Input
Amino acid sequence: METKQYVAAHLESWLRDELFPLLRIPSISAQPEHAPDMYACARKWCELLLAAGADTAELLETTANPVVFAAKQVDPDAPTVLVYAHYDVMPVEPLDLWHTDPFEPVIRDGRLWVRGADDDKGQSFLQVKGFETALRNGWLHCNVKFLFEGGEEIGSPGLAEFCAGHREMLKADIILVSDNSMIGRDVPSITTGLRGLAYWEIEVTGPERDLHSGIFGGAVANPVNVLCKLIADITDADGHITIPHFYDDVEEVSAAERAMLAQVPHDDKAYAESLGVKALCGEKGYSTLERTAIRPTFDVCGIWGGYTAEGSKTVLPSKATAKVSCRLVPHQQHEKISRLFIDYIHAVAPDCVSVKVTPMHGGEGYVCPIDMPAYRIAERAYEKAFGKRPLAVRRGGSIPVIADFEKILGIKSLLMGFGLESNAIHSPNENQQLDIMEKGIVAVAEFYREFGKR
Output
């Protein structure tokens, strides 16, 4: 049976009987009350991996959430693929923006709607079913290992230490990852670069308690005002980050690669309309695709302070807090950027308040060589699944552990992502298109059909 026919014949039952129960588990790593759900999800993955054909599957403890490790050996002399994924998901708030229950899978309009449909349970499932398809049809010519973690959405705590302590167990020739996106449903692409990340919490404190804004306003610094100015001054009118030495290690992408990126189909007007904004903005001198792929950024991820409930309360707040992040490009080290950021904030903060900056998590960027044999095999696999050759593009997201894999295990990663920008990952109403899921499984199975074949 051909790959496409096999996948089409099994997809409905795979989703209903295997993926849906997995998606119903609220494995939110950012919220401590879901700790039992992390274990439940890990155990479910063990069950599914064994059913897919893995010889072994076990839950292993780390200093944070457990990892799932599974393996299938077809020949001790054959090359080995290590599949990485994560089973934790983002929080679902605000709940009132969801059209359906965030943890009850619903198929509507050709899409699967549920938290984790794309990031990363849905895409992990594509990898597992691609492996199973190859195995059941006699196309698997390599050994396969699976490493599924439960903390990617909070910076993968404990995973680097786990990898360092299990180098022999994780030994492989290539790492496959499906935790990223394509350019579009009709424009398949393979991600050849990821940005790094640095993340902080800033707390600005003024008076020892909230004050009456009429009696004290004008005499005492308002922490919210101060915090807003500190944040606003980090970027200038041209979208350039003002932190001294921030750009020292920024890679200047070659004219050839910028030209290749310019060939990617993109319409600024349609892009803005799809996001519900009147206009786009960003660093001067760069296109939208360049801003989101090859340039660093600064963003406020959350900010609060003072009175935010219904009605009004004339208060001068005691504290204000923000969570902020930078997306980094290859060669920018997140620990160095973190120190530069902290030094900058303390240097420019006025004496009328006290400021505390707490680093949270971060990671390096990553570049995948397009001349690797595994990359060329993936290109052909995508072409069989989607009917056209995939583009090679850098993307703006971050998977910090990918750089750790290269550093600790010495293995390159191949980013076979099948997400779409319209899938609303990290947002209410996350979804994934069923036809893309089907093609993704086909692409993974076709990769295995060729990889390791003698």
User: Anything to note?
Assistant: The CA atoms of residues 42 and 191 lie 27 Å apart. The two ends are 22 Å apart (CA to CA).
